[in-house]
């Protein structure tokens, strides 16, 4: 954490920025309170980049609209029922929420929305003390009823009230604890972890969509491992992602294999490293990170103890792809994400055949064809999957993949490898063979695609002759 002087200077700079000062003056002139709250204040104190400006006020939503409308380039009230009004002022997007004093029925995580009348009351109902911070503007007064600054200094996550009560009100906060542990690099207090463990089953009242969103935010951190480990340790992962804790396979003294769970966390870490190296400054690639997290989930179901102390996991790629598809659908991921992640898992072992012996040009074309638009992610996942401590083996695999990528690039220069298609279309096939639309045309197109993959582009006359000869033999 930065020095006290630096923290105060950042808070003052934020409070005196054009957008904040304009809003602060407008609310004050209207006789209402306004405070920056939560993440922006926390991040300013930590010296982290501030991305979003969240405010809280004693003004009710309709009154907030009246105050903000003359200042805003655009405004929206999609969150009005929860007291939140959004607005865009120049390049900044802000959210302003009326003080809340919600109550929960204990059966769902949807609160009965009740507006509060004090800033301190609003802060105490928040998830963690480090987020229960506010900066009154224009006065520039820090409000910290739950001693969140002390916890920032100690780098600890704890709830402003009893964690049992906090998590009972909103079980999603348990997943947020895991996310903030990774995002901020903070430890979670012992009583908070104990409550997460005891109340893990409460997460089942939270919708799959909200769980999915928290998982995505966790995986979007630069180092998601601490949060993932906390979810496994507390039993929360068993409730919505049981395939992850299942990777902690029993290792028997006579059959040796690497720790699949630890290997998985390492693969996630390395995949993020490759992603950031190849695409610096870009948004996190959640598809790649999900594939890294789930790439070996087929191993528990395919584990076999062989003679000679060998452990095998035959076809865990295919089994894992099916399990991943089922789990991601249950978490309400989009069809595109489900397809991409399951495809990457299905293909993640394909390269290791290349490392055992040089592929033909045909095999390289098929690798590219099968990967499709996931080829670059497959490169990153495959490289990340090498976690051996045997430097000689790691170097051999790395050199082999360098060679494969070089061959793909070379073939791309020779032909349009990204869009490998048969040299004839369906209309030409029907004309040459005298066919009508039907399954025979599909079989002929498959033959032509295999021919194209095996031998590359061929002259039109030769393709037609080969097609006729194939058809004559059917």
What does this structure look like?
The protein starts with a helix and ends with a helix. The chain is of the alpha+beta class and 474 residues long. A 7-stranded mixed sheet has the order 3-4-5-2-1-6-7. A two-stranded parallel ribbon has the order 8-9. It is elongated. Helix 8 runs parallel beside helix 10 and helix 14 packs across helix 20. The protein has 4 domains: 148 residues, Beta Polymerase, domain 2 (2-Layer Sandwich), CATH 3.30.460.10; 86 residues, Hydrophobic Seed Protein, CATH 1.10.110.30; 173 residues, no CATH class; 47 residues, no CATH class. It contains 24 helices and 11 strands.
Low-confidence stretches: 252-256
What's the story with the biggest beta sheet?
7 strands, mixed
- Kindly state the percentage of residues in helix: 40-55%
Number of helices: 24
Give the overall form. elongated
Please state the CA-atom Rg, rounded to the nearest Å.
28 Å
Q: Which structural class should the secondary elements be placed in? A: alpha+beta
Total number of beta strands: 11
Strand residue content: 5-15%
- The count of domains is 4
Biggest sheet, spatial arrangement of strands: 3-4-5-2-1-6-7
Overall mean confidence score, pLDDT: 89
Distance between the termini: 74 Å
């Amino acid at each position: 954490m930065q020095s006290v002087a630096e923290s105060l200077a950042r808070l003052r700079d934020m409070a005196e920025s054009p957008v904040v000062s304009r809003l602060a003056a407008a609310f004050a002139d209207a006789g209402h309170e306004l405070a920056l709250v939560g993440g922006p204040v926390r991040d300013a104190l930590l010296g982290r980049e501030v991305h979003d400006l969240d405010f809280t006020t004693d003004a009710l939503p309709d009154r907030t609209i009246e105050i903000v409308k003359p200042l805003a380039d655009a405004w929206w009230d999609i969150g009005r029922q929860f007291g939140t009004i959004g607005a865009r002022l120049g390049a900044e997007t802000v959210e302003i929420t009326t003080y809340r004093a919600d109550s929960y029925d204990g059966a769902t995580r949807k609160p009965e929305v009740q507006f509060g009348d004090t800033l301190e009351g609003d802060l105490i109902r928040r998830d963690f003390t480090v987020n229960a911070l506010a900066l009154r503007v224009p006065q520039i007064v820090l409000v910290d009823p739950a001693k969140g600054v002390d916890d920032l200094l100690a780098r600890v996550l704890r709830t402003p009230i009893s964690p049992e009560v906090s998590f009972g009100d909103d079980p999603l906060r348990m997943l947020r604890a895991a996310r903030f542990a990774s995002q901020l690099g903070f430890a979670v207090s012992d009583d908070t972890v104990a409550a997460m463990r005891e109340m893990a089953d409460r997460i089942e009242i939270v919708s799959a969509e909200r769980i999915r969103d928290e998982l995505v935010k966790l995986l979007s951190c630069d180092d998601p491992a601490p949060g993932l480990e906390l979810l496994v340790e507390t039993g929360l992962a068993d409730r919505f992602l049981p395939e992850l804790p299942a990777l902690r396979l029993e290792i028997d003294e006579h059959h040796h294999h690497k720790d699949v769970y630890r290997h998985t966390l390492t693969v996630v870490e390395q995949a993020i490293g490759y992603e950031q190296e190849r695409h610096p400054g870009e948004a996190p690639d959640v598809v790649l990170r999900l594939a890294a997290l789930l790439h070996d989930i087929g191993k528990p179901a395919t584990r076999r103890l062989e003679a000679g102390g060998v452990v095998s996991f035959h076809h865990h790629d295919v089994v894992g792809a099916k399990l991943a598809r089922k789990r991601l659908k249950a978490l309400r991921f989009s069809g595109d994400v489900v397809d991409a992640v399951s495809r990457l898992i299905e293909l993640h072992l394909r390269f290791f055949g290349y490392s055992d012996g040089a592929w033909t040009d045909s095999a390289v074309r098929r690798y590219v064809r099968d990967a499709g638009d996931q080829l670059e992610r497959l490169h990153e996942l495959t490289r990340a999957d090498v976690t051996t401590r045997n430097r000689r083996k790691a170097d051999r695999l790395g050199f082999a993949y360098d060679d494969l990528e070089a061959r793909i690039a070379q073939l791309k220069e020779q032909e349009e490898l990204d869009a490998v298609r048969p040299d004839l279309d369906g209309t030409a096939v029907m004309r040459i063979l005298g066919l009508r639309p039907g399954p025979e045309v599909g079989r002929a197109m498959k033959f032509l695609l295999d021919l194209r993959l095996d031998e590359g582009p061929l002259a039109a006359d030769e393709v037609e002759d080969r097609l006729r000869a194939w058809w004559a033999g059917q």
